[in-house]
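Sat 14:20. Reprocessing the chain from the morning session after the first attempt stalled halfway. Input below, unchanged.
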Amino acid sequence: MPKPPITVPIARSNYPPAIHALLASGLAGVGLTFAPPPLVLAVWLLLLGVVALYAGAQPAGALSIQALDEMLYARWIKACGEPSEAVLLRCHYLGPWLLGLDVGGARLWLWPDSVSASDHRALRRLLHRPGH
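Finished this time. Tokens:
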């Protein structure tokens, strides 16, 4: 008998945009030694715009995960409550705070502020396979 699916509400994380904005600022600081300030300012603003677009493109919603025949399948739960088509779920990074998932070919990074601690633990238990 298959286990019931785990439904994980996922929020947009603040960590990746902050990290990328800091990297863009550091790059602009280094660029000031080699390029004129107006050019560095233009490039820095362009990089911050890309960071803002990236932050808005992060997936958010509820992800339902189920194990069938030693494989994991995931479904995004739509706003109307209807599940989408089941896709293969693979874990490509399992760290203590960061989880990297491949949901039907799309990368999904779960940072500590994007899922609750209990959901994070449940996912780690589901994804961790000793000896592999």
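The chain has two domains: 6-11+60-127, 15-56.
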